[in-house]
UniProtKB/TrEMBL annotation:
Record organism: Russula ochroleuca
Name of the protein described by the UniProt record: Cellulase
Signal peptide region: 1-19
Gene3D superfamilies named among the record's database cross-references: RlpA-like domain
InterPro entries (UniProt xref): RlpA-like_sf
Length: 234
């Protein structure tokens, strides 16, 4: 009789031990999403590197202040959209982990005038508040914002793209005296406040229930703030 009870206890304990690791991993993923590898791995979110830059083709300042992707209005400041693979959410999936992060961006090369020597001291700080979509078809936007998990580089061999919001004054400060065009340069994530490269602007009203903007003291990538939503473009 004692042997039978011991066998039952051993079997029950074995089943519990086998089941627990799977349950723990599943619960951890649901409770604390990260940028680490999981079933939706593939986001490319690096705190510094090379990037391409363009200007938005919208002439309305409201476009900069009311960009919908992160769910919050802005009152002032240089803002930018980034490509889906860096933004952390595909179109209509809500805010991604890039929302509210600040980046110091600096132009280094003008492909349309390759011999032109850029003046010293160029560079601005932008806050991400929008998504540059991975559009279908062959368009300039797709060539620059269309990075995917299977093809991580755009037409200039860069994994990161910033679309500077023209009406906010971002382009004129980024590349003074030059019409909007594709530029190549570098970027680095910086604190949004309390530094020489701090972002100068203001956030406004929250208008979406799932809105999210990274706190000003958020740790830089690959640490998370808002977190990524869903899977990256395959």
């Amino acid at each position: 009789m004692k042997s039978a009870l011991a066998l039952v206890a051993f079997v029950s304990l074995s089943a519990l031990v086998v089941a627990s690791p799977h349950d723990i991993v599943h619960q951890h993923r649901d409770a604390a999403p990260t940028n680490s590898a999981d079933t939706c791995s593939g986001w490319v979110q690096k705190f510094r590197g090379k990037a391409t830059f363009t200007a938005s083709n919208n002439s309305s300042l409201d476009y900069c202040k009311q960009a919908p992707a992160c769910g919050q209005y802005f009152t002032s400041g240089f803002t930018a959209a980034v490509n889906e693979l860096a933004f952390g959410a595909q179109l209509n999936n809500g805010p991604g982990d890039a929302c509210g992060r600040c980046f110091y961006v600096k132009p280094q090369w003008d492909p349309s005038e390759p011999d032109f020597k850029l003046p010293p001291g160029l560079g601005i700080t932008v806050m991400v508040n929008n998504l540059c979509t991975n559009s279908s078809g062959s368009t300039p936007q797709t060539n620059l914002c269309g990075q995917t998990v299977s093809d991580r580089l755009n037409s200039f061999d860069k994994y990161m793209h910033f679309e500077l919001c023209t009406p906010s004054g971002a382009w004129d400060a980024f590349y003074p005296g030059k019409q909007p065009r594709t530029m190549v340069g570098k970027y680095q994530e910086v604190p949004c406040t309390g530094s020489t490269t701090a972002w100068k602007g203001g956030q406004g009203t929250i208008f979406a229930e799932d809105s999210c903007m990274a706190p000003v003291n958020a740790p830089r990538w690959p640490k998370t703030a808002c977190g990524n939503k869903g899977c990256p473009p395959p």
